[in-house]
Every structure is written in structure tokens, then in C-alpha cells.
Design a protein that fits this description.
Blueprint lengths: L20 H16 L20 H8 L3 H12 L6 H14 L3 H9 L3 H6 L8 H15 L3 H8 L4 H6 L9 H15 L3 H6 L7 H8 L5 H15 L22 H5 L7 H10 L2 H10 L15 H17 L10 H13 L2 H7 L4 H11 L1
């Protein structure tokens, strides 16, 4: 005779919590509906199914989920409702930003006519600074690397409003100015029509970007010079097609790049803006005579990130774009010679500016 002993293991984990009351009710409703609308096993094949009874919409939403378009309209309704608490309006914009990370949803902003109320939040008297900052974030995410959304948003002539956020004031905090740079960057990169619009008198974009290089907050200065460098960088021309027949252009988010390859090229426009509006001189001054920064404005040493990005911009301008400094602009030349002597050699200076040896030699040769 064999004797089998069963061992009961007691695990240190507590039993799972019971389902919530609402979950039990929803599942009970679903089970009841399934039973009521099922076909009996002994029914004739030709028997008509019983009439469908209404099901709680909440149960359907729980199973299938609500369409993103419906959620986007709901988020916008809450965000633009001045009677709602600020935290609810900000949370609605945060949820909307998550939804439009999907490029199809970003393109649906135009179809759902949500661009106008979204942009209006930036200037509405009922919008707090947090609401404006969150709206800037949504806009920047929607238009980033998305020419279709960029074109839709540009129809509202948004640049005067976006550029106005760069001016330090009680209505423009560090967070809003930084977020405005993010939004501008998303709208301007690979978008020649938007960069061209910076020259419009009612925008005066290059002047505001030049002023941002002297912003009290070093974070804003870093982001501004990084944006300028990205816009200046020459784009790689598309390879010629081997087919002699023109291929059809399908309607999608990036069709604008195919129908107009020059759209992505912002280098020449940026080069002209930097030269015409004194941005290069302002940047050279910012390198040679850096303004204090920090919480109390007591940091006077050069900022490493700002210096590296600025030097990289000058390398792009002088070497890759073939630009030249004006005869009366000796600030950069004098500063580079002084820093070379201070570091004690080209290798040390190249390491400091994150350049390789040939890049530094190219830069020095163009400064002669």
C-alpha cells in the first residue's frame, strides 16, 4: 500500500484583492446581455435571433475603448472651458498631447477643427501660465517632423504669437520660454516656408531669436543657439530617381517633401537671416563676453554646452556653408586666438569644443 502525502505550501503573498464593485456590476451586465441575446442550442437554424436589447454604453466603452477622435474633442472641450479648475484643464491638454503623439491623430487636429481653439489658448485671458505652457507642448508635439500638421497650423499665422513668448516678462517664465523654443523648433525644422516667414515685419523673428541669445536663463540661450545651428545645417539633397517616369505622390503626412524637396532646406534662408539681422555678431559677443546666469545671476564662468554649440554653429557657417565674417567683426577672431593661447594648443582646444582635429583646423583657417 502506498501512502501519498500532500503538502500545502503557504506563500507569503496576500490573496488578490476582490474586484471592485463597479467591475463586478459591469461584468454582470455583460454576462446578462450575452445570455439574453444568445441563440438556444435546440432552436431551428432559420429561427430569427431575438431582438437586441440596449447595452450600457459604459460596458461597450470598457470592452472596445472610445475612438481617439472622440477623446480629442472631449479633451479640447475641457481645456477651453474657463469654468473648469486649472488642474483639470492642464490634465486634459496633457492627455491630448499623449494622443497626438500618433501622427494620424496629429493630422486629425485639422479635420476635427481643433487647431483654432488650441492656438487660442495661447492668448486667452482665461489661460494661466501652466495652461499656455501645456498648449505650447501639444502644438510642438503635433507639428514635429510632420509637414502636413505644420502646413495646417501655419494657416493660422501663429509665428507672431509664438515669437512673443521669447521676451522675458512676468507673463513669460523660464518654462514658457523654453517650451516656446521647443514649439518653434518643431515648426521651423525642415520647413522652409515657416523659416521664410520669420522675415515678415509682423513677426520679426530673427530679432527675437538674437535677443534670446542674451536671455537671463542659460537654458533658453542653449536651446536658441541649438535651434539656429539645426536650421543652418545644410540638408542632404535627395538621390535622383532611376525611373524616367514620374512616380505618383500619395496623400500622406510627408507628401510635401516629395512634391517640393526644397521645402526641407532651411540653410540658405537661415544664413541670410543670421547675416542680415546681426545674429552672428550677437553670438560672437555672447562667447567673448558671456552674461551672468544662474538662480541669483552669480554664475559668470562660460557655460560649456552653450560654448560648444555656438562654436559648432560658426564651424557650420564658415566651413560647411562657405560664409565669411565681415571685416569689422573681429570679436570672434580675437576670442578664438585668446582661447587657443589659454589652452596651450589645438588639441586641447579641440577637445574643449568637442571638435576633431581637422574640424578645428578648418575653422581656424576660415578665421584668418
Amino acid at each position: 500500500m502506498f501512502c501519498i502525502t500532500l503538502k500545502v505550501h503557504h506563500y507569503p503573498f496576500p490573496p488578490p484583492p476582490p474586484p471592485s464593485t463597479r467591475h463586478r456590476i459591469d461584468m454582470q451586465s455583460l454576462l446578462r446581455w450575452s445570455i439574453e441575446n444568445s441563440t438556444p442550442l435546440d432552436s431551428a437554424p432559420s429561427a430569427q435571433p431575438p431582438a437586441r436589447k440596449d447595452l450600457d454604453p459604459g460596458v461597450i466603452d470598457m470592452i472596445l475603448g472610445r475612438p481617439d477622435a472622440e477623446l480629442m474633442k472631449e479633451d479640447m472641450s475641457v481645456a477651453t472651458d474657463p469654468s473648469k479648475p486649472e488642474d483639470e484643464r492642464v490634465a486634459a491638454l496633457d492627455h491630448l498631447e499623449m494622443l497626438i503623439e500618433h501622427i494620424d491623430n496629429a493630422n486629425d487636429l485639422a479635420k476635427l477643427k481643433l487647431w483654432e481653439p488650441l492656438h487660442a489658448l495661447l492668448t486667452a485671458s482665461t489661460s494661466t501660465l501652466d495652461i499656455k505652457m501645456q498648449a505650447l507642448w501639444v502644438i510642438g508635439t503635433a507639428v514635429q517632423n510632420n509637414p502636413s500638421a505644420q502646413d495646417s497650423y501655419l494657416t493660422l499665422n501663429p509665428l507672431p504669437t509664438l515669437i512673443s513668448f521669447l521676451t522675458p516678462s512676468p507673463a513669460s517664465t523660464l518654462q514658457t520660454r523654453s517650451k516656446a523654443i521647443y514649439t518653434l523648433s518643431s515648426l521651423l525644422k525642415h520647413n522652409a516656408p515657416a523659416v521664410r516667414a520669420l522675415d515678415n515685419p509682423n513677426v520679426d523673428g530673427w530679432t527675437h531669436l538674437r535677443s534670446a541669445l542674451q536671455d537671463p536663463e542659460i537654458t533658453v540661450r542653449r536651446k536658441t543657439v541649438f535651434l539656429l545651428g539645426a536650421l543652418l545645417l545644410p540638408s542632404t539633397p535627395p538621390a535622383p530617381s532611376s525611373s524616367s517616369l514620374a512616380e505618383p505622390i500619395h496623400d500622406n503626412s510627408h507628401a510635401a517633401y516629395i512634391s517640393n524637396p526644397d521645402r526641407a532646406s532651411t540653410s540658405a534662408l537661415t544664413m541670410s537671416g543670421l547675416e542680415t539681422h546681426g545674429v552672428l555678431q550677437a553670438l560672437a559677443q555672447a562667447l567673448a563676453n558671456p552674461l551672468p546666469y544662474g538662480e541669483d545671476g552669480d554664475a559668470i564662468e562660460p557655460d560649456v554646452a552653450f560654448e560648444e554649440t555656438s562654436v559648432r554653429l560658426f564651424h557650420t557657417y564658415l566651413v560647411l556653408c562657405g560664409g565669411s565674417l565681415s571685416e569689422d567683426n573681429e570679436t570672434l577672431r580675437t576670442w578664438v586666438r585668446a582661447e587657443l593661447a589659454r589652452e596651450g594648443g589645438e588639441k586641447q582646444l579641440a577637445d574643449r569644443w568637442a571638435l576633431d582635429g581637422p574640424e578645428l583646423k578648418e575653422l581656424l583657417a576660415r578665421l584668418v
